[in-house]
């Protein structure tokens, strides 16, 4: 189950049953299967087994949870008081030598011994998760959550310095289903900055997306698709600046501009960098 991106933290009562707010951690998403025979399978999003790369986590789960438990969570490394994604890419021996601890932060439970609980609403699964982890400690714990919207905004503002990527809002009535869903929403920290519009995708008078150059000189396609108002504004901006139609190696046909035009972008920080178009800058 994957959250869809959102621009802002939703109001608690804007969905039936309300939202649960949790920290958006910068780590490796992994399902944790505690199996019979002392086996533990840490499954990455690409279905790769990570238990050999994080043997200390696999061993702790094996020794402290009964077979039949399935958790969803995040493998997180800590260095100097903040999350460190880079250290997750190091070998286990290197992390041990450098004194970098790793934790498994659980945010959902899919099964308990003898029972699949995915059809239950999140509020019930959260209680089951708490019961399953009642007697455990680091490196295994539940993610920090709140039902208070104001508290969620405070976390979003104050925890960025600790390496927290943002906030996840989850509908308390939502069952656990595979794939992306609007029942879960992720709100990442972002910065607005100037960029250069290089080309447009789709009809030139109503583009769907833009080819832009970021301040670090990387060239990316904007996402998500432009709104109707944004599309109209860009169509008016590029009139008289249209150049040749060319084939982008990753994104297909793009109409290049005869000269770059100034636009304002919102660029997500952290690993998952993406550029969202904000507005045109006619003064540029």
From TrEMBL:
<comment type="similarity">
    <text>Belongs to the ATP-dependent DNA ligase family.</text>
</comment>
<keyword id="KW-0436">Ligase</keyword>
<dbReference type="Pfam" id="PF01068">
    <property type="entry name" value="DNA_ligase_A_M"/>
</dbReference>
<dbReference type="GO" id="GO:0003910">
    <property type="term" value="F:DNA ligase (ATP) activity"/>
</dbReference>
<dbReference type="GO" id="GO:0006310">
    <property type="term" value="P:DNA recombination"/>
</dbReference>
<dbReference type="InterPro" id="IPR050191">
    <property type="entry name" value="ATP-dep_DNA_ligase"/>
</dbReference>
<protein>
    <submittedName>
        <fullName>DNA ligase</fullName>
    </submittedName>
</protein>
<dbReference type="GO" id="GO:0005524">
    <property type="term" value="F:ATP binding"/>
</dbReference>
<feature type="domain" description="ATP-dependent DNA ligase family profile">
    <location>
        <begin position="95"/>
        <end position="188"/>
    </location>
</feature>
<dbReference type="GO" id="GO:0006281">
    <property type="term" value="P:DNA repair"/>
</dbReference>
<dbReference type="InterPro" id="IPR012310">
    <property type="entry name" value="DNA_ligase_ATP-dep_cent"/>
</dbReference>
């Amino acid at each position: 189950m994957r959250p869809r991106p959102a621009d802002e933290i939703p109001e608690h009562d804007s969905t039936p049953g309300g939202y649960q707010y949790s920290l958006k951690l910068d780590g490796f998403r992994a399902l944790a299967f505690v199996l019979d025979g002392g086996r533990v399978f840490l499954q990455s999003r690409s279905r790769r087994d990570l238990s050999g790369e994080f043997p200390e986590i696999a061993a702790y789960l094996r020794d402290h949870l009964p077979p039949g438990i399935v958790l969803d969570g995040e493998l997180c490394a800590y260095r100097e008081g903040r999350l460190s994604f880079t250290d997750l890419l190091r070998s286990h021996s290197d992390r041990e030598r450098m004194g970098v601890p790793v934790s498994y932060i659980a945010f959902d439970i899919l099964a308990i011994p003898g029972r699949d609980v995915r059809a239950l609403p999140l509020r019930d699964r959260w209680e089951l998760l708490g019961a399953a982890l009642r007697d455990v400690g680091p490196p295994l714990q539940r993610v920090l959550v709140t039902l208070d919207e104001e508290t969620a905004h405070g976390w979003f503002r104050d925890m960025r310095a600790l390496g927290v990527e943002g906030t996840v809002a989850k509908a308390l009535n939502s069952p656990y289903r595979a794939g992306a869903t609007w029942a879960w929403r992720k709100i990442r920290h972002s910065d607005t900055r100037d960029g250069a519009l290089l080309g447009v995708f789709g009809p030139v008078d109503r583009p769907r997306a833009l080819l832009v150059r970021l301040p670090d000189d990387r060239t990316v396609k904007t996402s998500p698709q432009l709104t109707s108002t944004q599309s109209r504004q860009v169509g008016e901006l590029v009139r008289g600046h249209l150049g040749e139609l060319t084939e982008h190696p990753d994104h297909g046909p793009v109409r290049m501009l005869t000269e770059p035009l100034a636009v304002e972008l919102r660029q997500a920080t952290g690993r998952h960098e993406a550029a969202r178009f904000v507005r045109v800058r006619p003064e540029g």
